[in-house]
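User: For my dataset I need records formatted as: sequence, then structure tokens, nothing else. Please produce one.
Assistant:
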Amino acid sequence: MGLGLIEQHRIVVRGGVDGVAFRVWVKNVARSLQLMGHVRFVEPGVCEVLAQGNRFALRQFVATCRRGPCEGVVESVTDEREPLEKHLFEFALYR
């Protein structure tokens, strides 16, 4: 994978994401796409994801986040590309 294809995005998911293992689901999807970063709740009903990796995998990741897991209800997703400050080497869960 060429370095020019690596991007970093901040994704905010709003909706019924509490109590449905949403963060674990996000982590599993991200890892399956070989993305690095982290996921955390910022307030009830709002989950923030920092994802870094191949731009094509990121597009697929955002599309998957818009659908969400079958247990949750995604009301909205915002996706903003950010400057790539440092390379991350894992995908973590934060509270």
